[in-house]
Every structure is written in structure tokens, then in C-alpha cells.
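Help: read this over?
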Amino acid sequence: MEETDREAVATAVQRVAGMLQRPDQLDKVEQYRRREARKKASVEARLKAAIQSQLDGVRTGLSQLHNALGDVKDIQRSLGDVSKDWRQSINTIENLKDVKDAVVQHSQLAAAVENLKNIFSVPEIVQEAHNLIEQAELLQAHRKLMDLECSRDDLMYEQYRMDVKNTHDMNLIRNYFGEVQNLSEELAKQLWMVLQRSLLTVRRDPTMVVSVVRIIEREEKIDRRMLDRKRQTAFIPPGRPKKWKEKMFEVLEGTVSTRIEGSQSDTRESDKMWLVRLLEITRKYVQNDLIVVKNLMIQCFPPNYDILNKFFTLYHKALSVRIEELASEDLEANEIVSLLTWVLNTYKSAEMMGHPELTTEMDVNNMGPLLPKEVVNQLLSKYIQIFTSNITGWLRKALETDKKDWKKDTEPEADQDGYYQTTLPAIVFQMFEQNLQVAAQIDEIFKQEVLRLCLKQMTSFLIRYREEAIAYKEDHMRDRQHPQCYVQYMIAIINNCQTFKESIKSLKKKYSKTEFDEHDAAINSTLDSVAKDGCVYLLDEVFMDLEQHLNELMTRKWLTGSNAVDTICVTIEDYFNDFAKIKKPYNKEMTFEAHRRVVIEYVKAVMQKRISFKNPDERKEGAERMIKEAEQFKFLFRKLSAGLGEDTDRLCDAIVALAEVFKLTDPTLLYLEVSTLVSKYPDIREDHVLALLAVRGDASREMRQMIIETLNQNKPLSTVNIQPVFRDIVVPTTVNKLLK
């Protein structure tokens, strides 16, 4: 206490010192005193209230403890009285054993009396129940069955209570009621029969289905009661629990499976479309059945059965098993597609499980896949293998058919624009289109895979196409009289290349998300090669006919008045009447190549030194003839190139440039003229110049040597963009020797 008082005084001194730190605060001493007095009074009041509350609590606790003590003493006295009474009643309980036995016997006799009517009428009741079952009065038949089972079960239970080990009496009761078990089995068969036909029965007589469900519900209730009694007494009547509800769903599952399996009426041997027909029949059956369940059968079952969901599950399970069986068979390519399309698209669509009448109750997306992913992948892989094999055979057969057409004596058909063509591109791309349409029914990824496979096969096919075109040309060269329409069919082969390009572009635009493919370059390259080869083969045909007339050029016969160039122009124009039926851009290339080859053959005739002019008059006459014939070629190829935008003059100007060398009268200016020629055509070589001077006929060896040396010193730079004329012209060895 002293320590506390000292702390209080110290605290008070500290507070007063804090209040009176300035002189002006002395005037407020009285105010501070009154404030502290109020605080002290408030604290004292709170302390008094707290102490009073504590005292009241202690008083109440003591009172309750006193009452509890009294209650404990009363209980102790009562327990003593109970113990005394219990010891006195032990002997009395032992004396009541006879009464207990009498009670059990009375209970048995009461059960017997209660079931006396049924006991003496078992055969008659069983027969009545049989008759009711035959009359489809299932509820009444079940009522009689329940009465008989109740009598049997009560008697057996009482016997069990009286003497568990008395199996003789238990068997006696069981045998006496033996027909009851048979009756139960017969009724069950009738119930299962109704359930097996429930989808039909519910449309004609839904009350029959309701009766079956009511009977099953009754039996379920009895099963639960018997199981409860078994837990209490360990007694269970024979045949219990029946589990008819569980059996009902087993029967419905078997019914659904049988319905799915029984929908197949055709085989591949009897009908090529057997699988399509089977899947369509299955689709209709499942859809119609589930609509019946949703609209009719759901009303016949209690809500806790969730019968619509049960049927959805049963049909999904049965379909999954059936589809896996079909998938394991040796299916053809079209059958695999039909199956996968049905599984991946049709099954959950509005045409089947996603039907508007069904989606209001069930979400089709909650159902799992009908086929496992690995099975789907196996089918897709198998389809790709079959498709690869099939398409290779189809393309080979299509090419063989097209080759037969090449040998016909009639011209090929022309399209609406008059261009020759064969049916090969249409057949090939019809095959591709059909398979891509089928693949698109499965999914986008598979469609892209089939498209890539088509393009890959197209690459291989075009290589064979090129080989066959070469063989076709070689066969013709062995006998140019056959086939009669060689030119027309070679034109059709060239045009097919452009048709193939357009068809591939159209196919990719329709079925592909990517503009370019790994096979594009190979396909375009091969098509261009086939087309260009075809153009070369046709020009070979032309120039084989022109060979005799080309050989007349730059000869004495030509100088004295040959009409070789007239014949060449007429022949080329005649051929180009057919070549006009070549599609762009190959017709432009064809015209340019023909023009180039004519000029090269003409220049080649000059370089072969078939003639050597003897005097200025011959040189002048020959030069003027060359210029005239160059103009004829220009006119011809301008006419043939009309609308193609081709510059036809430069090639023919090479002939004119050679003529100018011949036409020159002053040999001292020959170097300048040759220099002009070389500057225009940088690809001209030394042997070309020597051959040209040899044809002119008046250039001495020294002049030729001087011109060549000067040209070598002032050799012009080659221009890449200038089309070469002289590069591929070879001066014959004999001519070179003569020149040297």
C-alpha cells in the first residue's frame, strides 16, 4: 500500500508540474482543482458500481451452489430406492418366463389366425393370380402376390423368433408356399415383357407402363422394410431383396441394345450403301424413341427415376458399343467417311440428339464422345491409306483412258471458247472435289490433310503425264501418219496444263485457308514443262514439214527465184490455224518460239555457206531478197501475234542486218557494217562473222583477219536483256575449215 501511495503521489506531482509550467497558469489553479475533483468523484462512483456488481454475482453463485447440493442429495436417495427395487424384482422376472413363452406363442397364433384365410387358400389365390396375369391385370395380380408373400413371411418370421434352429418347420412353410415364388417369377417375366415393349406400349396404353412402375415401387418399398428388419433381427424372407428396380434398368438397357443392334437389315454384299442405310435407320429410331420418352414415358415414372436422362445414357452407351463394333470391321473408304460424319457431326446435331424437343430437357454437349479419340484417329489413318491407294489407281485409270483418246481419228472436243481439251482435268478434279466434300463433312483439319494428299498425288501424276506426252510424241515420230489428229491432241495436252492450273487454284480457294502449299512449285513447274515440251513437239512437226524448203534458202536455186519462203509462210499460217486453239499464255510462247526458230533457221542457212556471191549484182540481189523475205516473216508473225502484245520486228531485223552486210558495195566500209551488226547482236561469234564474209565472197584473208582482230579488241559488252539470235547457231566444221 505504501508503495502504491508513493507512486500515486509521484504521478500527482508530475501532473501538477505539467499544468503549472507557466506563470499565467497560476490563475487557473482553482479551475484545475475543480476539474480534478470531478474526475475523482467519477472514478470513485465507477469503483463502487463494479464492487457492487461483483458482490451480487458472488451472492447468486452461492445460492445456485446451495440448490445444486440439494438436488444431488435427492438424486442419491432416488438411486438407492431404484437399486433396492431392482434387487427385489429379479426373482419376479425369472418367474415370468412362462408368460414370455405364452406371449410368443400368442403372437404366432395371432399371425396364423390373421393369415388363416390365405393359408388355406394358397392354391386358389395362386391360380387367381395366374389368371389375372394372363388378363394383363398386373396390379391385382401383384396385390394377391403381396398377400401370399406377407402370410408366408409373417409365419416364417414368427417361427424364426420362436426357434431359429428349427429348419424343419421353416422348410415346411417354404414348401407350402412354394408356388408363391413361381408366381413372383411369372409376374416378373410379364413386367419385363411390358418394359421391353414399353416404347410401343406407352403410345397405345400408358396405364400398363404405369402399373409396372407402381408394382416395382411397391416391391422396392417391401425390400427396404425387409432389409431394415434384417438389420434388427437378422431374418430375411426367401427371395428378398428382389431388386426389381435394378432389374428394370437392366431390362431397359437390354431393350435399347437390342433395338440398336436389330436395326441392320442389309449387308455389303446385298447393298453397297448398307452402312448409310443402317446409320439413317439408327438415327430415326433413336430420335423418335427419345422424343417418345420425353413426351410420354417421362409421365409414367416418378421424378426421382430421372428416366429421360437414363434413356439418354442407355442409348449413348448402346450406340457407342455398336459404333465401335462397326469401326472394327473392314470398312471401305466411303464407309469410314459415312461412319465418322455420323459420329462427329450427325450424332449431336439437330437431326438426332440435338433435336429441339430434346435439348429443352438435356444438354447434348454434356455427353462424352461416341467413339474414343484413338479409334477416330485409327479410322482417319485407315481412310488416308485407302484413299491414297484408290486415288493412285483412279489417276492411273484416268490417264490410260485419256491416252486412248489421243489415238482417235476424230479431233478432241473444244470448250466454250473453242480451245481443244480432253476430259482428263475434269475427271481428275471431279475426283478431288468429291473426296474433299466428303472430308469436309468430318472436320476442317481432316479436309486440309486430304487436300494436301490430293496435291501430293497430283505432283506424281503430272510427272507420269509428262512421260506419257513424251512417249506419245515418240510414237508419232516413228510413223508421222498416225495418229491422224496428233497435232490437235498435243494442243489439248498443252491446254490441259492451263486447265489443271486453274482447277488447282479454284480447289485451293474453296478448300484451303493458305494461299501457298509445299507442292505448288513442283506442280507449276511440271505443268509448265509439259506445256513447253508440247509446244516444242508441235514446232518440231512444223519444221519437219518445212525442212525441204528451209534447205533451199541461201542456195543458187533460191537466188534465181525460189518460192521457198512463200511456202514456209503458208505452211506456218496453216499450222497456226490449229495453234490458235492453244490457251494463253502458251499460245504467246508458241508464236514467239515459232518466230525465233524461223529466223534462226534462216540465219543458220546463211552460216552454212550454201552460196557464195560472185559479184556485186548477186550480192545486191541476194540482199534485197533477204530484206523482202524478212518483211514477209514480219508480216506473218505480226498477223499471228495480233492481240498477244508480242514485238515481232527485232528477230527479223537480224536477217535485214545480215543483208546490209551483203548489200554494202564499198569493201573498205565492211568493218563498220560488221561492227554495227555485232553491236546490235552481241551474241554473234567470230565464226559467224567469218561465215558471213565468206558468203559475201569478196573479203580477202587479210581483210577478214583485220576485221576479226579489230572486233576482238573492241568487243561489245553482252546485254542480258537482249534475246540472243546467234548463240545457238553452230557453223559447220567444214565451213570453218574452208574459212581458215
Q: What stands out?
A: The chain has a mean pLDDT of 83. The two ends are 149 Å apart (CA to CA). DSSP finds 29 helices and no strands in the chain. Residues 29-95 form the longest helix (67 residues).
